[in-house]
Design a protein that fits this description.
globular; about 80% helix; single chain; mainly alpha; about 0% strand; about 260 residues
Length: about 260
Amino acid sequence: MELDDLIDQGIRNLEEGNAKAAEKLFAQAAGTEKSLQTLTLLAEAQIELGMLKKAHDNLSLALDIDAEDLDLLYLLGDLYLEENRNAEAIATYQKIIDLDGQDIDAWVSKAMAYVNIDDLEAAEDACRKALKIDPESAYACNALGDICVAMGKKEEAKLSYQHALEIDNSDPQPYVNLAELYYEDEVLEQAEEYCLKGLSVDAGYAPGYLTLGYVCLDLDRSEEAVEHFQQFLRLEQDPAAKQLKEEVSAVIEGLK
């Protein structure tokens, strides 16, 4: 198979969720030609498969080819973030900012890394810098809402999530974030409304079913709560959510 065919077929497999087949094709491509493209694609597939050491090895080789490629730096920064190597993630996102100070996503990603190390003031500052560049960034507004929640600024968080929805109402996350805040305030009808709005946008958004389950539980609608919890368990695939899924399973058992 020619190099271009290996790359094209690998990209199709990756887009279709078949990372294993994609990784094999990209490995063949990189064996034929170790270019920025083949190494980056191979690393991306390996990250999907949890082959993180191999991904780092290939990203390192790619950086030797072009240390200023923004897509490559993003992939590396996101990998560090996934590994909870937050100092390295911050340094990598800063490299992107140094190359392009107007890159909003890099500012917001840097803010999220600061959240992970509980430096909330630095996180807020980075996020507000993103919003200074583009006040109409729904991504930055939603992130600022998350930071405000962590800082205990619930009303400001609500305003940030609402602004995110005014800009772009096609993302379920701000809806469910608002639902969680209203649930904490015991305003259950409003919490349910926002959950349902979020799930109407994306019926596969797992956190929406989790919050909706707890809302129904508090509204004494136990059968509905169990259905929503079960749907959450079916949809949630993040390995980091293992303990949460066990807790939800225990709640379901307690309701039967």
